[in-house]
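Hello again, I could really use a second opinion on something today. I've been puzzling over a protein and I'd love to understand its fold better. I'm sending you its amino acid sequence along with the backbone structure tokens. It would help a lot if you went through both lines with me. I've dropped the whole record in just underneath, so have a look.
***
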Amino acid sequence: MAPQARVGLDVALRKFPARLKEKKVGVLCHSASVTSSLTHIVDALRDSGRCTVSAIFGPQHGLFGQTQDNMVEWEGATHPTLGIPVYSLYGAHRKPSLQMLAGLDALVVDLQDVGARPYTYVWTVKHCMEACAEAGIPVWVFDRPNPISGADFDGPLLSPEFFSFVGGAEIPLCHRLTMGEMAQFVKAQYVPTVDLHVVWMDGWCRDSLWNETGCPWVLPSPNMPTFETAMVYPGQVLLEATNLSEGRGTTRPFELFGAPYIQPEKFRAALKRFRVPGMVLRDHDFIPTFQKWRGEHCRGFQIHVTSPRRYRPVFTTAAIIAAAIETSGGQCAFKAPPYEYETVKIPFDILAGDARLRQRLESGRFSEETGKEWRDERADFIRTFREFTQYPEKAA
């Protein structure tokens, strides 16, 4: 087994950054912000005695993953033992106010991302970088693995006119960057005045998958229970913008999908022509306990990724939607706004990157050629990506 990667938090605790010593810091964190021994960052920094945690900020789903479903806001409070403010950045505020940042010497960011553009944590970080640039406060990012970076890039780029809280940079749906690298990318492209510092990991290489890092998996959000969930998420998140269930309300969200109108045999026949690589679909019906089709029997499947490095999560889900549209007799549909604070644009379009994929799916023009066009479209991004890479593709 490969040696365990050391996340940025572990690195920082072993050799604490001099410029954070004896400083009053705010910490942007969540349930997965833990050391290799599963100590939460707030407790680890407090126990270290090297700085003072003066405020805590939490992203979507709350500080400890308490808000189960999408688009459920939460309110801040006072930390029960430290007596310091806990600020919600998924409610009345998504960007810290100057009042929230008052008195802080730095903001420390420690969030576990999953390598998919619509996962909102990185856009919370972008908002924090903007606020800290305005307030003159440095930002420190403690880096963590991209759990699916061993898989290839996939999906179209996001067009700037479709920027939203599920996408704030011109990157593909499956992007291979870590949170620290993404912060550097955001600084270079959008927030050049922020004073940014990154504590990089030790012993991590980009072509690894989470189960090869030796790091413990902690749910970064309520519907991301396993590394296998993260593998399919960059594509399956698109189902949120359709009336297909993405498995919310089951114990295997995003891996399971379906709807009462799915006809398994017809669906399989339609999907077969797309020659989707790296996975097997297994019939698996379910009855969601919440969200779409709550309490109704959904005919569906579980995605089993058999070859992660060949698997194409976005192409796979686009093919799934195409097959559902073809075989549902008009019952498969795209959802209308609102979605994640966007009240005008179609939810699928802001997730996909623009309107083109939806239009192709609706007209029956989605094909393997679409995937080739995405590869051509990503060429400039991949050149830019190489400017921000901090980790080798393979272990030395």
